[in-house]
Amino acid sequence: QVKVVESGGGLVQAGGSLKLTCAASGLTLSSYLVGWFRQAPGKQREKVAVIDSFGTTDVADSVKGRFTISRDNGVNRVYLQMNSLKPEDTALYYCRLHWGTEYWGQGTQVTVSS
Fold it and tell me: CA-CA distance, 29 to 40, in Å (whole number)?
């Protein structure tokens, strides 16, 4: 049974940092394209960052220079390091795995206070 669990969210002041973790079980993560998405209240879900099986990354312009995505296939985890957080980064952050089939986690809440 495949399970995807996000963790690491919380409440932080503007300018602070958080590191999100996406932990996968029941599959071999190394084959999957993994993305971090976020959805703020009243807004559409947006892609924040992705990393492919070769380690090639891409991040949204809105977070470029502040967020970094990385993966550790040995422990089936993908990370999102978020620095210089802004109130507009407040959202529910989701992890998505895709390789033919896609899997989503339940999300972890990030709240940035001004």
Answer: 27
Q: How many residues does the chain have?
A: 114
Distance CA 17, CA 102 (A): 29
Rounded to an integer, the average pLDDT of 7-34 is: 96
How confident is residue 8, by pLDDT bands cut at 50, 70 and 90?
very high
Bridge partners (DSSP) of residue 6 are 22
**Beta strand residue intervals within the chain, DSSP E:** 3-7, 10-13, 18-25, 33-39, 46-51, 57-59, 67-72, 77-82, 91-99, 101-104, 108-113
